[in-house]
Design goal:
Blueprint (H helix, E strand, L loop, with lengths): L1 H11 L6 H16 L12 H5 L9 E6 L5 E7 L4 E6 L20 E2 L2 E2 L9 E5 L2 E11 L4 E6 L4 E7 L8 E5 L5 E5 L4 E2 L15 H4 E10 L6 E9 L3 E7 L7 E7 L8 H4 L6 E7 H9 L4 E12 L6 E12 L8 E6 L3 E6 L5 E6 L4 E6 H10 L2 E5 L2 E4 L1 H4 E6 L5 E6 L4 E6 L4 E6 L5 E6 L4 E5 L12 E6 L15 E7 L6 E8 L6 E5 L29 E5 L2 E9 L2 E3 L2 E6 L3 E8 L8 E5 L7 E3 L4 E6 L5 E6 L12 E7 L8 E3 L13 H4 L3
Parallel strand pairs: 14-19, 37-40, 39-45
Antiparallel strand pairs: 1-2, 1-35, 2-3, 4-5, 6-7, 7-8, 8-9, 9-18, 10-11, 11-13, 12-13, 13-14, 15-16, 16-17, 17-20, 18-19, 21-22, 22-23, 23-26, 24-25, 27-28, 28-29, 29-30, 31-32, 32-33, 33-34, 36-37, 37-38, 39-46, 40-43, 41-42, 41-44, 44-45
The structure holds (dicuprio-$l^{3}-sulfanyl)-sulfanyl-copper and dinuclear copper ion.
């Protein structure tokens, strides 16, 4: 395989082969390697020690991998690669009822209606002084433009905000060094109707004149993390791909890669690959904020949802926002510049010192590194080469620090180790390449399997990388694991970067398609992890805090069941008086005040999901029985030795019957004290 790739490189080097052709060649090389068993090249014998986390011991780091098209975030322990949790964000999750139960359904509301899915690409940890602080994780929804916030005390999604004037929120979300702003750029430009708001109706032939991109400036509350769309910058109608914030000297700047500066609207594979250089856009976010504050912003109508989870009720509410402010770069001198960057660039990564901006040009044969101080000088000297829509374009040589020669094929992303080295993924030549940021010399190459997209070094996008490990996320899995039919898991690989040479440690399967990831030392997150919700702080309006208060009430065609659960019974567990044609809402409060004792609730025929209620919380399930009968309900989580006994019945009579509402917790059979948890009960 190495030989093959070598040949490939010689063929493609310098000639600027179209990506389709190169990847075609590459796929051939994949099937080549299918013939042999898994390739263990680069793996030495005692790597097991480096990743072994003994039973009962904890991992050194958390890592948060995006799930791509599953709309979720997966949490893995590093170095073991153990999957710790799946956090549903944009997707309904039957496992715990997220997006199904009444409390979380509003989280998935958008101006397009209820959208229970998205393509989640880039997790970014919140920051303090340029370092990940372990409080929140921000993620983007690429399809129906949204930004979400996960609270890392509960590992729950607590806020989702739709982004207006955007289509494909890929270039997102990028926090500045103290979360002053989260920046979110649109991937696709769309025709904007500044008078009526939102997307206008336009002929595709008018692309060049009417289509615009947008970059959203989302303010983050310092203490609570709540987001608010402050304003947008409306930018030329390119495709905006990825972004990253500066640090140190470049801390006031954020950089965005663009492609399709050709403004092609069809067959973009070719149309958007014509220009020898596209742009890296540089925006001074502080200056933009100043312009917006000083009245340079215009206002236009908008229509977008902002959904927030309340801490006390544990219920989400949606607010519909009707206005958005925007800045036009041509009216804001000094706010935005364009750096010419070869060639359909993807990732933009800023080194820990904040001086070097690395642009990963998918089709480029070199890896250009731009210099922030040269950029400052170029602004002073007006070293421009024309302008686009009033935005100055720098002369390439005036801002270029240098180029990494023959880095590999198909560079996509770069991260840093804090020792002056950079690591870049090469999609086409399937390798991670280590190079020195100062002298731009390639130092090492590690073949990876296969076709890496993003890579992540814990803290590798901050001013002080944690270093030590690198996780590379591969797009193609092929023969790495036992085959599971046509659909395979994706594969991440863990690489030790503590020495001069990279050392391959571990393959681990990932869910759906991870794009970016974030890693953080466990001690920045674990101590703040909530064990359970305090019942006396539960302000859910339908919560019942003791069994005596449980009730069943009818209001017209609606029947409301306010129920409690505790090991190992529900109150009430016998319910009568429901009729076909009624809508029943179960509000179930878990009375437990102990760690790791959720109760589930499911009722036969429920067409949505179960709910999984954490101790001290209330969740509500809507159920519309279709036929008369006596329906069992039960707890879905094996919570005690008598979990199988945790069940009840609800009687549904024909429409118009005269069975009155009646409920009880029966002649209770004696219930053992709540000590029957899995650890003490020997329930197997
Ligand atoms: S992008 S590799 Cu969102 Cu690179 Cu996926
Ligand atoms: Cu409660 Cu099983």
């Amino acid at each position: 395989m190495r030989e093959l790739l070598g040949n490939l490189k010689t063929i493609a080097a310098g000639v600027g082969l179209p990506l389709a052709l190169i990847s075609g060649l590459f796929l051939q090389s994949c099937s080549e390697s299918n013939r042999s068993t898994a390739n263990t090249e680069g793996v030495d014998e005692d790597v097991a020690k480096a990743v072994y986390v003994a039973p009962g011991k904890h991992d050194e780091l958390y890592s948060f991998l995006s799930g791509g098209f599953n709309g979720q975030v997966s949490v893995y322990g590093i170095p073991s690669g153990r999957l710790l949790k799946v956090i549903p964000v944009f997707s309904q999750f039957p496992e715990n009822g997220y997006g199904y139960n009444e409390e979380t359904r509003p989280m998935l509301m958008t101006s397009h209606g209820f959208v229970p899915w998205d393509d989640l690409h880039h997790p970014k940890l919140s920051r303090a002084e340029g370092m990940a602080d372990g409080r929140w994780l921000f993620v983007n929804g690429n399809n129906t433009p949204r930004v979400a916030r996960v609270d890392l005390t509960t590992f729950e999604t607590v806020e989702i905000m739709e982004i207006p004037n955007s289509a494909g929120n890929h270039c997102s979300p990028y926090p500045t060094n103290n979360n002053e702003y989260i920046l979110a750029g649109t991937r696709f430009s769309v025709p904007l109707d500044l008078a009526k708001g939102g997307m206008g109706d336009a002929s595709l032939e008018e692309y060049k004149d009417k289509f615009r991109g947008s970059i959203s400036f989302i303010k983050v509350d310092k203490d609570k993390g709540d987001m608010e769309l402050d304003f947008q910058v409306l930018v030329p109608g390119f495709d905006y791909d990825l972004a990253n914030g500066g640090k140190g000297p470049s801390g006031d700047w954020v950089f965005f890669t663009t492609y399709n500066t050709e403004k092609a609207r069809t067959m973009k594979e070719l149309g958007a690959s014509q220009n020898d250089k596209d742009y890296l856009a540089a925006i001074n976010w502080k200056l933009a904020a100043k312009y917006a504050a000083e009245g340079k912003a215009h206002e236009m109508p908008a229509n977008y949802y902002h959904n927030k989870m309340d801490h006390g009720t544990h219920k989400a509410t949606s607010t519909i926002k009707k206005k958005v402010r925007y800045l036009l770069p041509e009216e804001c001198p000094g706010m935005m510049y364009l750096l010419p960057a070869p060639k359909s660039p993807h990732g933009i990564d800023v080194d820990p010192t904040g001086e070097y901006m690395v642009v990963n040009g998918k089709l480029a044969s070199t890896l250009p590194v731009f210099s922030f101080s040269k950029m400052q000088k170029a602004i002073e000297d007006k070293a421009f080469d024309g302008e686009v829509n009033g935005i100055p374009v720098f002369k390439y040589d005036a801002v270029l620090y240098g180029e990494v020669k023959e880095p590999g094929l198909g560079p996509l992303h770069t991260e840093f180790d804090g020792k002056g080295n950079a690591y870049s993924t090469m999609f086409v030549s399937s390798e991670v390449v280590k190079w020195n940021v100062k002298d731009l010399k390639v130092l090492d190459r590690m073949p990876v399997y296969y076709s890496p997209g993003h890579l992540m070094i814990p803290g590798g996008d901050t001013k002080e990388p944690y270093g030590k490990y690198l996780v590379v996320m591969n797009k193609i899995t092929k023969d790495r694991y036992l085959p599971t039919g046509p659909e395979l898991v994706h594969s991440a690989q863990l690489i030790d970067i503590s020495g001069d040479k990279m050392r391959m440690l571990l393959d681990f399967p990932t869910l759906a398609e991870p794009h970016y990831a974030q890693g953080i030392p466990a001690d920045k997150v674990a101590p703040n992890s909530v064990k359970f919700f305090k019942l006396d702080q539960n302000t859910h309006p339908e919560a019942v805090k003791k069994e005596a208060d449980a009730s069943v009430t009818r209001q017209g065609k609606n029947v409301k069941v306010n129920m409690t659960s505790i090991r190992s019974h529900f109150v009430p567990d016998n319910i009568e008086g429901v009729q076909v044609g009624d809508t029943v809402i179960f509000h179930v409060t878990n009375l437990e005040q102990d760690w790791d004792v959720p109760h589930g609730f499911a009722v036969m025929g429920a067409d949505n999901a179960e709910t999984l209620i954490m101790p001290g919380a209330t969740q509500s399930l809507r159920w519309v029985p279709k036929q008369a009968g006596v329906y069992p309900f039960y707890c879905t989580d094996f919570c005690s030795a008598l979990h199988q006994e945790m069940q009840g019945y609800i009687r549904v009579s024909p429409k118009g019957s005269n069975v009155p509402i009646k409920f009880s917790s029966g002649e209770k059979k004696s219930v053992p004290p709540p000590n029957g948890g899995p650890s003490s009960a020997g329930m197997n």
